[in-house]
Amino acid sequence: MSKKVIHKDFHGALSVAFDYILKKYGKNILEEYLKICARKIYRDLIEKIKKEGISAIEGYWKNIFSLEDAEFTIEKEKNRITLEILKCPAIYHIRTKGYLLSKEFCLQCHVINREIGKITGFKSEVYSEKGKCIQIFEKIK
Fold it and tell me: Is 116 in contact with 38 (CB distance < 8 Å)?
């Protein structure tokens, strides 16, 4: 069975799109756009999280970050899961190719995770800095 391949240049395209939206419409509109993306693009993941909880998040992270050849670790507890990305594959690709990195590029993880968490009953936290991040989902009691 062959390994699934992804086209990493979409990261550069997203970065340019984010800067366009920021310049033309502002940060609030970019955040609203990302919330819509969370609800539409991640609809299947949201339904899976509602049924399976933290295990669905773990499976998604393992799959997507393995496809991206990311350096990451996952710690799973009963009501909490933490992803640590040691080298963000998106930011690394953008920098390697010489594309412009939007100053708000990491906003997508903050907003999309928060929206997914809101819909599925999880609190989401994202701490990002210089191509590394920690993402946390914790079940709201």
Answer: yes
